[in-house]
Design a protein that fits this description.
Layout: H1 2-94
Length: 95
């Protein structure tokens, strides 16, 4: 009988060890799944940030182009005004 009870105890110990190993594997799988979901959420957030930043960049580039155009136009007008003032000063000196 002792041999039978020893065999049962050994079988029970192997069964408990197998259950422990299974529980560990399940915990690791769940942890891995949670990490994967967290990474997917982070990737989604980064993608949204990238899209938003691309839109902001497009708007900033368009604004910069408008400002450059306006600055060029103002520069041309200033050149014309300076030339006109120079002509008036030259006429005043000649008189």
């Amino acid at each position: 009988m002792e041999d039978d009870s020893d065999a049962v105890e050994r079988a029970n110990a192997r069964f408990v060890a197998a259950l422990d190993a299974l529980e560990g594997a399940i915990r690791r799988q769940l942890s891995s799944h949670r990490e994967t979901r967290a990474h997917e959420a982070e990737i989604q957030q980064l993608s949204e940030d990238r899209s938003r930043l691309a839109q902001e960049l497009d708007l900033a580039q368009a604004r910069a182009a408008r400002l450059e155009s306006a600055a060029s136009h103002v520069g041309e007008r200033l050149d014309t005004a300076i030339a006109s003032v120079g002509e008036l000063l030259d006429r005043g000196r000649a008189s």
